[in-house]
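Please fill in the sequence for the structure shown.

STRUCTURE ENCODING:
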């Protein structure tokens, strides 16, 4: 076998080897990388805390999902209590974290409207009629819920009224209510038309 034939065979073998190497590199580069597929999961709904007070079955603090509405908050609190002024609440409104929802009683709303629109006639006795139709809140016997239903009185101030009553006894006059921390002259004048110390 002469040198020309040997050289030809070696060139052919070298070409085949290069072909195998090139094919292997192509397969290696085109193969998808190994690993675990990432599956995106929806985030759990955020939670918010709100306080429901006033004319409601179970006043207190509740935890709701974000983007809940006032209707959801009232449902969590057991629904409206007897005498609640349902028209004063927008059930479709969204609630926010830390929000305080206060459902008024119809008595308080009616008393406010009556005091601003009605004028007594000579044959009427306004105080007696007001007490009969719209009972005032007796601050000596009122429960926490009844005190919270008063305008401008929240749960904290209502608790202070009860604590003052327990520490010092029954209120002797309405003005004594100003001794309670958190009730100044302005607040007292706003709730004065709705309170009494007489049973």
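FILLED IN BY: designer on duty
SEQUENCE:
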């Amino acid at each position: 076998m002469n040198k020309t034939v040997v050289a030809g065979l070696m060139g052919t073998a070298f070409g085949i080897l290069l072909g195998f190497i090139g094919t292997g590199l192509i397969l290696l580069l085109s193969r998808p990388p190994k690993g675990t597929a990432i599956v995106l999961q929806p985030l759990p709904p955020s939670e918010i805390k709100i306080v429901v007070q006033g004319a409601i079955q179970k006043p207190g603090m509740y935890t709701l999902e974000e983007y809940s509405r006032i209707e959801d908050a009232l449902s969590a609190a057991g629904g409206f209590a007897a005498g609640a002024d349902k028209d004063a609440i927008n059930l479709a409104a969204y609630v926010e974290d830390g929000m305080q929802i206060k459902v008024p009683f119809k008595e308080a709303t009616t008393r406010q409207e009556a005091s601003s629109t009605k004028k007594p006639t000579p044959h009427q006795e306004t105080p007696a009629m007001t007490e009969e139709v719209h009972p005032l809140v007796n601050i000596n016997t009122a429960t926490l819920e009844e005190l919270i239903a008063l305008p401008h009185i929240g749960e904290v101030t209502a608790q202070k009224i009860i604590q003052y009553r327990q520490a010092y006894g029954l209120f002797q006059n309405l003005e004594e209510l100003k001794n309670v921390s958190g009730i100044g002259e302005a607040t007292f004048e706003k709730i004065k038309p709705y309170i009494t110390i007489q049973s």
